[in-house]
Specification:
Layout lengths: L6 E10 L7 E11 L2 E7 L3 H8 L6 E3 L4 E5 L1 E7 L14 H14 L4 H17 L2 E7 L4 H14 L2 E5 L1 E2 L13 H18 L4 E7 L7 H14 L2 E6 L3 H10 L6 H8 L6 E5 L5 H10 L2 E4 L1 H6 L7 H6 L3 E4 L11 H17 L10 H15 L17 E5 L15 H11 L5 E6 L2 E5 L4
Parallel strand pairs: 1-4, 6-7, 7-8, 8-10, 9-10, 10-11, 11-12, 12-13, 13-14
Antiparallel strand pairs: 1-2, 2-3, 5-15, 15-16, 16-17
Helix pairs in contact: 3-4, 4-5, 5-6, 6-8, 12-13
Length: 446
């Protein structure tokens, strides 16, 4: 008989996305996990047959209440880990000024590894409590403190991509690479040390900050490092009109902003482009043809007054789109907040008559926060929804918990319960968190 810990079986309502449905609700369903992976998703009526086939005991079966459902863990496709330190206050200044006065001074503090350890531990703990089972992190340009971020993610059990930021031009003297060669050497050293550590679910990701702060030579070298090591790439693209104008002046012989990355070799099918607010149609076509994806960061786009991203247009152009919090340009570390801002941004575009497409709804945003982000990060073969063979990253949501921020009524359907959680719920409704089959945390209220 297998050990109890090898199996987990959930019976009740399962909610996820697939290739057809942004929100697929499977009621009276049994989902089985052995070790890290999902081994069956079947009708509850077949539970006895499944138990005989797989040999699991009754005490590994968790029956969800009518007010609970199982959903994939949230995947934050764009978050600045060091900026959790100054998350919250809305300073209402444009992107480039915000970088100079707030972001760069904050990130410079992370040269102190003891400071970094405290700040990064708080950041990852918070994101995990909010249901983020996977995150793609920008760190800072410091190799040692960025490795600490990776160590903490591994220790706490979060699935993560860790990016040592590279930036060698148009940076303040107190926060920049010493030279082009130093930037290249540090990026290579970081990747080597990450590979030596051989983490379970924590991987390096090549991270040129953006075209404003990276020379053309540096971007080309980073692309080569990514290619040699088969790594993902993350950067920013067309977030702010002032930024876009700056890039045009820096690279006058390029067709557009995306072309800067494309010619450098950074636009690949493993590239995550944060924002994409002010894209030209030619850029959208290039992103689609290269297989890159967009991380939509609606809170940040509004908070820094960068603009409103037309996600529906991107989706209809066959561009993969996920969601990101973009701490601390986005003031909230919660992916629930990103879901709400994504829907509201789409509504505003339609109220403003800026587009004629159908606005995003909560189902679309749910998909973007789970399977969509998995696709953007090129991990949809591993996580993002509940498919046999994938790893089990999941949240048990309890809409009936006494401390919930919303109330239930007899008429509420399961779809309405999901909608309520996404729009007015919070971490008090997250009863349990699983990453690769391991129970990570339970909400303090439970």
């Amino acid at each position: 008989m297998p050990e109890k810990s090898d199996f987990k079986v959930f019976v009740g309502t399962i909610v996820h996305s697939d290739d057809v449905n942004s929100l697929d609700i499977l009621q009276n369903t049994a989902l089985g996990v052995k070790g890290e992976k999902i081994i069956f998703v079947a009708d509850e009526g077949d539970l006895d047959i499944l138990q005989e086939e797989y040999g699991f005991r009754n005490d590994v079966i968790q029956r969800l209440t009518p007010f609970q459902f199982l959903m994939p863990g949230f995947i934050d496709s764009h978050v600045h880990a060091p900026q959790y330190y100054n998350a919250g206050p809305n300073r209402s200044i444009p992107l480039l000024d915000w970088l100079t006065t707030i972001t760069f001074p904050t990130e410079a503090k992370f040269a102190d590894t003891k400071f970094a350890e405290v700040a990064y531990t708080k950041a990852i703990n918070r994101l995990m409590r909010l249901g983020t089972t996977t995150a793609s992190y920008f760190a800072t340009l410091h190799v040692d403190s960025t490795l600490i971020l990776a160590d903490i993610a591994e220790k706490l059990g979060q699935r993560a991509f860790i990016g040592k930021v590279s930036m060698d031009t148009n940076c303040p003297d107190f926060y920049t690479e010493y030279s082009l060669q130093h930037a290249i050497d540090d990026a290579e050293r970081f990747v080597h040390l990450m590979n030596v550590k051989d983490y379970t679910r924590v991987k390096p990701i090549i991270t040129p900050r953006f075209a404003v702060s990276c020379s053309g030579e540096l971007m080309k070298e980073l692309a080569l490092i990514a290619d040699r090591n088969n790594l993902r790439i993350q950067t920013h693209l067309s977030e702010n009109e002032g930024e876009c104008e700056f890039v045009r002046k820096l690279f006058p012989d390029h067709y557009n902003y995306a072309d800067v990355y494309d010619r450098a070799g950074l636009l690949t099918n493993k590239t995550v482009l944060a924002h994409g607010v002010h894209l030209e149609k030619a850029e959208v076509r290039a992103i689609c043809s290269r297989g890159a994806g967009i991380s939509h960061c609606p809170n940040s786009n509004i908070t820094l007054r960068s603009g409103l991203c037309n996600v529906r247009e991107l989706l209809e152009s066959d561009v993969d789109v996920g969601l990101g919090t973009d701490l601390s340009g986005g003031y909230s570390p919660s992916m629930l907040d990103s879901i709400r801002h994504a829907v509201q941004t789409s509504n505003i575009l339609h109220l403003d008559h800026s587009c004629d497409d159908k606005p995003l709804n909560f189902k679309d945003a749910f998909r973007m926060a789970t399977l969509g982000s998995a696709e953007v990060l090129s991990i949809d073969d591993k996580v993002g929804n509940f498919v046999v063979g994938k790893e089990f990253d999941a949240l048990v949501i309890d809409t009936g918990v006494q401390s919930s921020s919303f109330d239930l009524f007899e008429r509420d359907t399961i779809e309405e319960l999901v909608n309520k959680f996404l729009f007015i719920g919070d971490d008090r409704n997250i009863r349990s968190i699983y990453i690769a089959g391991k129970k990570i945390n339970s909400s303090p209220c439970c």
